[in-house]
Amino acid sequence: MSMPDISGMPMNFSAFKIEPPYKTKNRVIQREIPEELKHAKTLGEIYAALVKMQMNLMSLDIFDDVRFVLDVPDYMQFDPNAVMVRMFLKEKRPVMLGVGGSFSSTATDASLEGNLEVVNATGYADRLVSRVNFDVLRKSSLYSINLLVPKSIFGHHLILDYTKSIRDYLKESSVSCLSDGVTLSLQHPSRLYSFAYSLAWRDMLPASNVDVDVERRSLQHVSRAMLRQCRPSLKSTLSASISLDSRDNPVLPTSGSSLRLQLVSTFPRFDGRRTAGSSAT
């Protein structure tokens, strides 16, 4: 005996009731309510809209599970077709730690890495990731902080990145590179386009036993091109990008095309040179 088709049953969405208590702000959940749900007139339309909303909420990556149950309104309601949707949210753990390591095939790099991830700390579906990497062989280090607040400014993602690194290239070119910078980005949710502004400070230093003035004449350890870069510099960069992707599969595409256009403009603000007679230590 086949079950009757009830997808066409008249039904109107009236309200949400979220259980159990949750930390996520109401505005974060409300902005994921599809317009189809507000105008749904049948059970089938409500079900399709709730599936879409479930996918939207899970894409925020702050929930382990999202479930919906249709129920009779527990408040006075004069519409006989009105239904209330009970929402059950299971939020992810707020703090996650990770430790790892890697070795290069040429045995020139051996890194230890640790990361700390804080999820939904403010209730706005934000994600804060801090990462530390140290190369045991090269004595290089990298520290970065990434903050993502999705759909926070006119529906666009707000991304803030801070990176500080000390990279040792003494074996290859007898210099070390120090950099410190911050980048602020505004990105479309579908990554259709993005805008970014970055401000970075960089300095290159020769080995401690190399005198800059003597090396400029002899060029025994450092190339002339590298010596020109051995000075502190501060620059700001403004960029905009557009991405068009019609591939059927981003990993193994069989049809479609992918196009990315990026415009970058760099504005040097400061370019300091060491005075004669000085040396790097």
How many helices? The count is 6
Mean pLDDT: 83
CATH top level class name of the largest domain: Mainly Beta
The unreliable regions are 272-281
What's the total number of strands? 12
- Considering the protein shown, what is the CATH homologous superfamily of the largest domain? membrane protein fhac: a member of the omp85/tpsb transporter family
Judging from the principal axes of the Cα atoms, what is the shape?
elongated
Write the CATH fold name of the largest domain. Porin
User: Pairing-aware structural class of the strands and helices?
Assistant: alpha+beta
Q: Main β-sheet: number of strands, strand sense, barrel status?
A: 9 strands, antiparallel
Based on CA atoms alone, the radius of gyration comes out at 27 Å
Order of H and E elements:
EHHHEEEEEEEHEEHHEE
From the coordinates shown, what is the CATH architecture of the largest domain?
Beta Barrel
Helix content: 10-25%
Number of domains: 2
Q: What portion of the residues fall into strands of 2 or more residues?
A: over 45%
Compute the separation of the termini in Å: 87 Å
The strands making up the biggest β-sheet line up spatially as 4-5-6-7-8-9-10-11-12
Keywords: Membrane
Pfam families: Omp85
Main location: membrane
Protein name: Sam50
Gist of the model:
By secondary structure, this protein is of the alpha+beta class.
Topology:
Elements: E1 12-19, H1 26-30, H2 35-38, H3 43-59, E2 63-71, E3 82-91, E4 95-103, E5 110-119, E6 127-135, E7 140-153, E8 156-169, H4 170-173, E9 175-187, E10 193-206, H5 212-218, H6 224-229, E11 233-245, E12 258-271
Parallel strand pairs: 1-3
Antiparallel strand pairs: 2-3, 4-5, 5-6, 6-7, 7-8, 8-9, 9-10, 10-11, 11-12
